[in-house]
Amino acid sequence: MTWNGTLLHIHVAPAASYEMEELTQAQLVPGRGIVGDRYFLGTGTYSPKLDVREVTLIEVEVLDAIAAGEPKIPGFKARLEPEDHRRNLTTRGVPLGHLVGKRFRVGETVLRAARMNFPCKYIEELLGIPGLYEGLLNRSGLNCAIEIGGVIRPGDPILPMYE
Fold it and tell me: Smallest Cα–Cα separation from 156: which of 99, 109, 95, 96?
C-alpha cells in the first residue's frame, strides 16, 4: 500500500479529563509517550492497565465525515475540533485502520501501530455530545508504541516503512 500523510495537530493533557493543549512541537520518548501528556505522566484513565497507548492518532478525514453525517447509518452528525477527540495526533492522508502491526515514520520518529482505539461513553459526557460514542465506533483512532523517539511538529510527513 502506497500512501503519504501529514501531521496536522499535536495535543496533550496532563491528566484524565483535562482539556487538551495544542503543541507546536513535542518530544516522543520510547516506552513512555509524549512529554507532558497524561500517559507519559501515568495520570491517564488507562495508565494502570497494560495497554499500548504511548501515542494515539486520529484521521482528520474521520472528523470531516462526522461533521457531514457520514456514513448515513448511524447518521450521527457533530462538529469535533482537533482538541475535542482526546487523541494526541491528528493526521491527514494516513490509513490508520490498515496500520495495525506495522511501523511508520512521523517526522524523525518511528511508531508501531498496536491496535485500533475504542471510543468510551465518557467522551459524550465530557463534551456534551449525545451519540458521539456510536459516531466514533470503528473509527476512533489508533494506539501506538514509540520505537524511535525524537521531536515532531505539525506539518511533518507521515510515511510508511516497508519491511
Answer: 109
